[in-house]
Amino acid sequence: MASVSPLQLSVFRGDAEGGEMVTYSVPVREGMVVLDAVLWAQANLAPDLAVRWNCKAAKCGSCAAEVNGFPRLLCKSPVADYGEEISVRPMAAFPVVRDLVTDVSWNYEVNQRIAPFTPSEADRDDPRAWRMQQVDVERAIEFRKCIECFLCQDVCHVLRNHGRKDAYFGPRFMVRMASLEMHPKDSLDRRPQLKGEAGVGYCNITKCCQEVCPEHIHITDNAIIPLKERMADEYFDPVRSLLRRLGGR
Amino acid sequence: MESYETVDTAVLVLGAGGAGLRAAIAAAESGARVTVVCKSLLGKAHTVMAEGGMAAALGNVAGQDSWEAHFADTMKGGKLLNDWRMAEIHAREAPERVLELERWGAVFDRTHEGLIHQRPFGAHTYPRLAHIGDRTGLELIRTLQDRLVHQAGIEVHMEVTVASLFAQDGRIAGALAYRRADGGLVLYRARAVLLATGGAGRVYRVTSNSWECTGDGTALAYRAGAELRDCEMVQFHPTGMVWPAGVRGILVTEGVRGEGGLLRNKDGERFMERYDPDRMELSSRDIVARAINSEVLAGRGSPHGGAYLDISHRKPDYIKRKLPSMYEQFLKLAKVDITKDPMEVAPTIHYYMGGVRVDPETGASSVAGLFAAGEVTGGLHGANRLGGNSLTDLLVFGKRAGEAAAEYSREHSRPARISKAEVGEAVESLVGPLGRPHGENPYRLQAELQDVCSRHAPIIRSESGLLEGLQQVLELRERARSAGTGGPTGRAFNPGWHTAQDLGQMLVNAEALFRSALKRKESRGAHARSDYPNPDPALANVNFVVREVEGAMSVRALVREQLPDALLAVINRSFEKYTPEEKE
Ligand SMILES: Cc1cc2nc3c(=O)[nH]c(=O)nc-3n(C[C@H](O)[C@H](O)[C@H](O)COP(=O)(O)OP(=O)(O)OC[C@H]3O[C@@H](n4cnc5c(N)ncnc54)[C@H](O)[C@@H]3O)c2cc1C
Ligand code: SF4
Ligand code: SF4
Ligand code: FES
Questions:
Q1: How far is B450 from chain A (nearest CA, A)?
Q2: How many domains does chain B have?
Q3: Domain range spanning residue B488?
Q4: CATH number of the domain that B494 lies in?
Q5: Angle ∠(B220,B225,B227) on CA atoms, nearest 5
Q6: Does residue B371 carry a pLDDT above 50?
Q7: Which atom of ligand 2 sits closest to the CA of residue A208?
Q8: What percentage of residues in chain B have a pLDDT greater than 90?
Q9: Which of residues 184-213 of A touch B (CB under 8 A)?
Q10: Contact between B210 and A97 using a beta-carbon 8 Å cutoff
Q11: What is the pLDDT of residues B96-124, one digit of tens each?
């Protein structure tokens, strides 16, 4: 492998005020991922190059950035999948703190506004172990795979291009709400919030979010569209909605 | 002097992994005001990587399971070096904690009856690990995180790193930390401090551990005067990725073997037959790791120096449902489809059995007001941890320590004093590297330290290697005194500065490891020595305890309290064998 020519790695260096792309020449190792290249540059050429990472195993969602313009996990992007030039920029939908690190605190504020898991009183007071069937938990399981990398938030044009963080919680939190809605033991009616401050109506189903999700969650197809359908039932078809309530969901 | 903010809190929790979150919830439920600080963003702690599951004798799959069987497995796995009371509490309370997690919204895979499913794991007599696919840690973290952010009385300070603790007359008083985003310094004054900072797996080069695992809590506790124990006991997980080089060390969950994965050498032989014919692939980790090591040394290893792990006899759908992250990990990073081809695996550093010595009931350390829970502690796992026992450790002892810390803070309504001079000293050492732009490069020192530990405290150790390693650690410690940031001295999110911090903590851990390993002149559990290949009966009930005495690290042998007869009888009981029914 020694004969492989070094990788030309350009990284955004700067902060909220601005910055520039700086290119580092990085030796390539077999199986190297982009995060390895960034960390090599950090250890050898640019000791203060700021990047978030934790697991280096695509499990924590810390290392989200844009690689050659595509939102990616740096630790899940093999260098071999690209040519000899790679450029890495921070996520564009969030303010830059430094270099590749962005301020994602808004996401934590949104999460706080979503009511927590709430079982019915009957379930809560039932002393026996809960029973749920695998088929019933399966739907929620897809959404619970989310590692909160916020890449979907990064590409959603409502947040990225139109800056409507005031109006829409974004795909990550549609997934979160879907995971609660579809939890067999959650008893809250989350539709008023979905329609209201969560702003599910702002999504116009472009599916950009589900294309970038490293966990392959079908964000639009399995979370947002079903949520929208529930809204439609509730707000435009009162009879069905009533029947459904009587029959239990 | 440098300026700093001051934050007052009743209970200061260091760490937002499973132990820290569970402890914070417990402390707040007990009525204390809690501040949680963590090095990363909330929800991204090391615990998030846990895959296989959490061990609890729920008896949902094997009705014969009981806390006694779990206790016996834990003690035998730990070669009886465990704190038996911790092992007893853990086995008794784990089921309750798992069920509680479900009540808080966690979703687990189900049995046919609709109960929490449990998978078999190494050295557990019965299928015992509650799990959701192979991402149980994420489920645990997300559930606790959601619970915590909606609980009154808890504040979370993310991306804040604690650099030192303050104690006054043997009582804890607070901590000095810095905020990564802007480099601002924060002095926490607390009535109780709870360490939940995890392990130190990053002192080795090939590791499954996250960035955060630099042993901060162990080092902080040590400097504050607390005792550590079992620091020689470091777990090599038998199955880490070996190839390609860039991903070496990343974990391959034991769940693969739990789901029926077979280990073979390059000749296609199921070599575990020679090392543990009864339990085969599901033997304890110390034994499987050494078996792979021996095969490689005997020239029977795979091309990149490991063994083959094969699950491809299972149906592709089953593999993708039960081991989705493994499937994805190999496909993406190694271009191997595990439904068709075997994986190549070799041992990787995984878990620190040693750590802060605590009271089994409360998690209290030997410094008043300083508590600890989770991987940062020593005791529960003895000489070798069983898979799945860590996640329930976090829940069981996180809760207990959180409650005890809250009670301590109630009983001591005024914080201990922190002297200005001490704060000054701590600040100086924290910002020191910023004043040394031409000091030694911290990344280089860190890499050298990792090499020293990997080379001189490997799976099989020896006196001469350990002595050499200790010598090199001490030299590195000297050099680290003049470590800089690697050059740039900005404060905002400067990883060079942070690495210099980590380095100091890692060095304490490494020194404790070498000094303790030198004392244990025998082979037991995870600690194996070529010069003393057998267990020494005289050390069977001895733990090595590390403490700072007059500025130097001292290690003493502590003879353990005898196990009560009733518990000894439990360990010697023969538990009914479990034969699984074949099901896909
Ligand atoms: C890949 C992998 C798979 C695993 N699978 C399993 C499994 O299936 N079952 C099982 O039981 N165990 C498993 N383990 C082990 C288990 O995950 C860990 O032992 C456990 O998660 C440790 O949790 P913790 O709460 O003690 O600490 P951690 O999760 O390590 O959290 C430590 C916290 O402390 C913070 N911290 C550290 N230092 C400081 C400081 N100086 N200042 C402020 N904050 C600080 C960190 O930011 C973090 O929030 C696995 C481990 C790995 C690596
Ligand atoms: S589908 Fe909806 S949420 Fe997803 S990117 Fe498009 S607008 Fe945003
Ligand atoms: S839904 Fe997918 S893309 Fe969005 S935060 Fe979660 S893991 Fe990331
Ligand atoms: S570092 Fe954890 S997802 Fe990349």
A1: 14
A2: 2
A3: 431-559
A4: 1.20.58.100
A5: 90
A6: yes
A7: 5
A8: 92
A9: 185-186
A10: no
A11: 999 999 999 999 999 999 999 999 999 99
A47 interaction partners in chain B (CB closer than 8 Å): 441-443, 485-488, 495-496, 499
Collapsing DSSP states into helix, strand and coil, what is residue B550? coil
Domains of chain A: 7-102 (3.10.20.30), 105-239 (1.10.1060.10)
pTM: 0.96
Judge whether B3 lies within some domain: no
Of B312, B347, B382, the residue that ends a domain is B347
Tokens 């089994």 correspond to what residue?
B360
Residue B584: band (very low, low, confident or very high) from pLDDT cuts 50, 70, 90: very low
CA A162 vs CA A202, B193, B276: distances in Å: 11, 45, 62
**CB of A172 closer than 6 angstroms to any ligand 3 atom:** yes
> Binning pLDDT at 50, 70 and 90, where does residue A211 land?
very high
Interface of A with B in 54-83 (CB under 8 A): 54-62, 76, 78
CA dist., res. B324 & res. B330, Å (int): 10
State mean pLDDT over B508-527: 98
Identify the helix (H) or strand (E) that includes residue B179: strand B171-179
Whether A167 and chain B come into contact, CB under 8 Å, resolves to no
Residue B324 lies in a domain: yes
pLDDT digits (tens, 9 = 90+) for B64-104: 999 999 999 999 999 999 999 999 999 999 999 999 999 99
pLDDT at residue B581 is higher than 80: no
Q: Whose CA is nearest to atom 7 of ligand 2?
A: A203
Residues of B identified as active-site: 237, 257
pLDDT band at B511 (very low <50, low <70, confident <90, very high): very high
pLDDT the model gives residue B415: 87
Q: Is the CB of A61 under 6 A from ligand 4?
A: yes
Which long-range CB contacts under 8 A does B535-538 form with residues at least 24 apart?
B535/B79
Q: Is the CB of A214 under 6 A from ligand 4?
A: no
Can you state the angle between helices B84-103 and B136-149, rounded to 10 degrees?
Answer: 70
* B60 assigned to some structural domain: no
Supply angle C-alpha A185, A189, A195, rounded to 5: 135
pLDDT, residue A249, reads 41
Task: Among the bound ligands, name the one nearest to the CA of residue B43.
Answer: 1
**Which of the pair, B580 or B190, is modelled with greater confidence?**
B190
Instruction: Report the SS3 class of residue B310.
Output: strand
Residue-wise over B477-514: b if at least 16 C-beta within 10 A, else e? Answer: beebeebbbbeebebbbbbbbbbbbbbbbbbbbbbbbb
CA of A74 to the centre of ligand 4 (A): 7
Contacts A148 to B, Cβ<8 Å: 43-44
pLDDT of the residue at B579: 80
Boundary-marking domain end, from B347, B381, B398: B347
Nearest-CA neighbor of B350 among B130, B46, B127? Answer: B46
pLDDT at B383: 97
